[in-house]
Request: fold
Amino acid sequence: MSSSIPFYHNLHVQYIQSLASKIDSPTSYEGAVTEHLRMSGIYWSITALSLLLPAEQVDQAMNLTSCCNIENTSTSPENKTTEGTKNQSIVDFVHDCFDESTGGFGGNKLQDGHILYTLSALQILAIANALQEDRFLQIKRKVIQFIQSLQQSDGSFAGDKWGEIDTRFSYCALSSLSLLGALNDDSNHTVNVQKAAEYIASCQNFDGGFGCHPGAESHAGQIFTCVGALSIAKRLDLLRDVDLLCWWLCERQCDSGGLNGRPEKQADVCYSWWILSSLSILGRVDWISKKKLASFILKCQDEDDGGIADRPGDMVDVFHTFFGIAGLSLLGVLHEEEGGILKVLDVENGEEGGEERKAQYRRIDPVYALPTDVVRKLQLQGQIWNPNKDSSLVDDRLRSYSIYNGDM
Amino acid sequence: LTLKSSVASASLSSTGGEDEECLRITKLVEMEMEYVADVLAEDSKNYHAWSHRQWILSTVNETMIWKTELIFVNTLIKEDIRNNSAWNQRWFASHYGKKVPLSLENAIVEIDYSLEAATIDPYNESPWRYLIALLREQRNGTKEDVNNNNNDEFGKLLVKCEDKICALKSTMDEISACACLIAAYIDVLEMKNDSDSFEKAACLAQELGTVHDTIRRRYWLMRQKKLKAYSMK
Reply:
């Protein structure tokens, strides 16, 4: 029994592809208010598109590794303006955002290095297969040192030199180091992963959830960062009362089928990611009503111009577009065989074309929020909780991770 | 902030400078807490405001500031009993920002508070979650109690909660059953740790999964199975 609303493949692809020129325009309001997080914006758009199109098409459409402009893509001083990426590839842009003085990446050119944008930068480079390029290898050690410098004595991480502490930064740090292959780098004592994990565990609250620091209100987004970080650190054993945590998460599902982030708040598409990814890692995705959530996400699409909004009827943005698509991937409905809940509408090629598209969709990894083929290629480490003794029940995309069975 | 070191009571030997510094910092803390309160008056769930407030409380860490925080939190809960941020802050303040379990006496005060709030609006998640967490905290304490004194007290506490929940349930319409009330009831029964209670809890879990909270039917199926298994041991 399929949902009456299709998945508007072409519209979403068009929406994402048209973003760059729209946002880089000097008169764009949206571009101006999101300038400081452009790196993350690019990561959201690249990854979203990567789920829908094969890698080569993404590269071409987004000027990921090269740009069609034959002009020199040098990093000369004239190019270091904040006027966008018209004459550069995205990888060039990422390198232009490297902050020599800190060793981190900024959210845009000329901005200070911060752990959030460092992760986004590395995620983009991972998708672009650019982590082995010479120009990256030259700065790699500096990036590792930047991350290392942010760890505090209690195991927590600051976002930058100004000292804000947040469990999001713990996730960014561990994920970044994992992408760099530097998580277990004993030779140079990168970070104390065990202490990082213990600090995160200390943030677990009375209701089973996690906040931004010990005692802070449980929040679905923070829960993802904590569970994700513990997965990367392979310390899921530090979680107390996982059933309670997962119940808290599935209690976020409202009558509309959408998920909210904490009690008594409104459903929002992005929680489809934060919550589903956590439940995936903990082996309890089926505690969410799949059909109802998929239906909610599909209702949040803009059926005229593409993209996905936080809730039905609102204006779309790339953040919610990415997390909506990622949510549909984690639910499995984006990858179901013919006759599943979700129907892909491919305007150019009719119903059969839609099914073909679906068959080609790539899967998102719940730990690293990257396409699974990228995670496998880089051989990234992680751990999942499988409450069943039968390991054959583990989702395909999680098979390369180590399995923790809890009390069994 | 170095409030701790400067809150030595004004002594005959203290310098004027130390006393001034102490007063200055106290004033600063007051102003900052008032500032955050103003922000929360506009947006009572603002995550960053609560975060900042917690930092101030933990850094100052004086008995009086924790007491006044409980008063502040109570005001917010009275304004909006469903404000989960305020409930979280109540836990934080009553525990002085630490993970040390409450004394039985203090736990009873908090349990009564949460039951009262649950009675006012049973469909509100927060007080139920708060209640169950308090009970679990006390139960985990009894596990380490060598003399078993607290076991009786804990048992009495569970019975009191069960009675109140049943009384509340009986005043409510069967048709519009309250899932979070029943969920809390199941948790209380599970803590009673006897065969009949497990059996009863399993039935209630089945009811939730099949009738009142079908959107989470797989979760309730898991609970039902576990409780059934416990009842047979």
DSSP finds eleven helices and no strands in chain B. The mean pLDDT of chain B is 91.
